[in-house]
Amino acid sequence: MSNPAAVEYKIGYSNIGYDHFRSEIMLNWLDGEAQSQTIYEGIYDRPPAKVWGAGDRLCVSMQTCARYEDSCTIHIIAYRYDADIKLFSELPAGDNLCLQAKK
Fold first, then answer.
1. Rounded to 5 degrees, what are φ and ψ at 67?
2. What is the pLDDT of residues 20-46, one digit of tens each?
3. Which of 93, 95, 98, 103 is the most exposed place for a label (fewest CB within 10 A)?
């Protein structure tokens, strides 16, 4: 696996009511030609997702919260680029891979 050229991302974020937000994270990059991929679609709470690079990984962080409570759980997903198929693939134990890189 190798890294693509600069990766641009866009986070689509809209309020769907009941303290929940729909989000979509889309990536665009060049690898011979223009490539694009949606790596996340779902519903979560609190601010929009955060996206950052960590070595050869792309990391995404988001929060989900118990309704009417301030108790939240942070979810972190790590992706690695597979040059053979020209797509980002989710890695198991992403939270550990991304948190180690932030230290």
1. -60, 135
2. 778 888 999 998 889 999 988 887 766
3. 103
Q: Cβ distance 64 to 77 under 8 Å?
A: no
Specify whether the CB–CB gap between 74 and 44 falls below 8 A.
no
Do 31 and 88 touch, CB atoms closer than 8 A? no
What does the alpha-carbon distance between residue 10 and residue 66 come to, in Å, rounded to a whole number?
26
Please name the amino acid found at residue 30.
L
Burial per residue of 17-36, b for 16 or more beta-carbon CB atoms within 10 angstroms, e otherwise: eeeebebebebebeeeeebe
* Distance from C-alpha of 1 to C-alpha of 102, rounded to nearest angstrom: 22
User: Average pLDDT, whole number, for the chain?
Assistant: 80
